[in-house]
Structures are given as C-alpha cells and as structure tokens.
Write a structure and sequence with these properties.
126 residues, alpha+beta, 60s Ribosomal Protein L30, Chain: A, six-stranded mixed beta sheet, 8 strands, 22% helix
Length: 126
Amino acid sequence: MKEIIYTDKAPKPIGPYSQAVKIGNLIFLSGQIGIDPQTNELVKGGIEKETRQIFQNIINILKSQNVDLSNVLKINIYLKNLEDFKRVNEIYQEYFKDNFPARTTVGGISLPKNALIEIDVIAYLP
C-alpha cells in the first residue's frame, strides 16, 4: 500500500506532489531544489549553497523514515549548467564516501524557481 511521506523539516511541496512516497520497502523522494524549509525560499549563494540545502532536505526526509543516505539506491541530478558538475561532484563526495548509489546527471535544463540544481532519490527500508 502506498504511503505519503511528509516532514516539516523539509520544504513544503510547491505544486501538486508529495515530498516522498513509500511503497513496500522503497521510498521515492520528489525532486528537491535548494529551498530552506524555514522560509520556503530558495537559498542564495550559488550552486554550493543550493546543493548543501538539497542534501539537508533529503537527509531530513529520509530521517523521518528512520533511514539515512546509506539507504540510497539511485540519485538523479539535474543541473541548469553542466559547468557546475565538478563542484557538485565534490560536494556529493562529502555525503557519499563509498558504496555509491547509482546516479544520473542531466544538464542544460530549466528548473523550478530558477534553481541551479535539483536532485531526486530512491532509497530502501532495510
């Protein structure tokens, strides 16, 4: 049975979707942009700030289900500008040091709220 996941420690959805959905032992997180859940505004400060805010939002959603980044199976990264790939990858490696999830990166796209990056995740419940 499908279960909708919501935590106030991550941004409220800005459209008709859920923060995440759980079915069986899988959790599907909607794409996260660098929105601060306290202000519901996109953080300022460039690709680094947005990427770190996204990971904090993802961590908070996963934590609401008693799992963490080690449970992530797949990540999709969407970049407005592929020139940011190197910096995003450096930050990514701060969060994933080994046992890496599968990953896709797409660049050159327009994102909600004119964000520089969006990330979605699939994780599992042990």
